[in-house]
Amino acid sequence: MNIETIKETTKFLIQKGFHFPDVGIVLGTGLGQLVNHIKIEAEVDYADIPNFPVSTVEFHSGKLLFGTLENKKVVVMQGRFHLYEGYSLQEITFPIRVLKALGIQTLLISNAAGAINLNFKKGDLMLIEDHINLQGGSPLAFKNVSEFGERFTDMSEPYDLNLRHSIIEIAKAQNIILHKGVYAAVVGPQLETKAEYRYLKIIGADAVGMSTVPEVIVANHLGLAVLAVSVLTDECNPDDLKPVNISEIIALAGQAEPKMISLFKELLKE
Ligand code: HPA
């Protein structure tokens, strides 16, 4: 990690037309359709951005977009980087540092997750209120961290209270079920065993997934206001566990997507 690579990438993107975004948005698995609502003003493939990791997961299109959505300037990560693709925690969170350098103040995150809390059903949305990092490391564990900010980042309220309050009200007004809960991040890419699902429930997780937490840690390090919503794509019942079907997970994320888009758009309006 060094400041120069962040500066170089930021400069490149400004030259490509990424001018003063207010809000960053990370679109997770199966949640790419929000981009159809954006008036796109600039667009670059991850592969063409200097210092960016290159996305290897074929169902992520891997692009950075800039444009207008609900009168806000947004920069959108269409597809994210995962630890299970073999990158380091610093590499997968590098784009978040670049978005901050471009000027964002707020970060909206989506992901697909499994429901540990069995009161939640597949296809439902869950607002992440807190998280448990089970990825075995920190994206802030590197030598010269003080160049970037403080060493010991506070995590007493990693998800912005005002944004949470707003989206809860929006969901009510739109009659969209929005559960609230704790998201546990694992490395993956293997799914969990029955014993692991039992463990996740015992330690207080409502949902489990393979992303988001590193991004949220770095966003807090950078002082960004963060909001994150999970689409629950499977029900993780250890007493009745069926083999996982990844295409079903992606399809379910796609089906729930209009709800997520509707919430995010109204949130941007406010
Ligand atoms: N476990 C981990 N990640 C996931 C799951 C799951 O059950 N569902 C969607 N992403």
From TrEMBL:
Under Enzyme Commission nomenclature, its number is: 2.4.2.1
GO cellular component terms, A-Z:
cytoplasm
- Provide the alphabetized UniProt keywords: Glycosyltransferase, Transferase
**CDD domains cross-referenced by the UniProt entry:** PNP-EcPNPII_like
- Read off the InterPro entries from this record: Nucleoside_phosphorylase_d, Nucleoside_phosphorylase_sf, Pur_Nuc_Pase_Ino/Guo-sp, Purine_phosphorylase
Q: Name one GO molecular function term.
A: purine-nucleoside phosphorylase activity
Gene3D superfamilies per UniProt: Nucleoside phosphorylase domain
Q: Where is the Nucleoside phosphorylase domain?
A: 23-269
This protein's pathway reads: Purine metabolism; purine nucleoside salvage
Top-level taxon: Bacteria
Q: Per the UniProt entry, what are the Gene Ontology biological process annotations, in alphabetical order?
A: nucleoside metabolic process
What does the UniProt record say this protein does?
Answer: The purine nucleoside phosphorylases catalyze the phosphorolytic breakdown of the N-glycosidic bond in the beta-(deoxy)ribonucleoside molecules, with the formation of the corresponding free purine bases and pentose-1-phosphate.
The family assignment reads: Belongs to the PNP/MTAP phosphorylase family.
* Name of the protein: Purine nucleoside phosphorylase
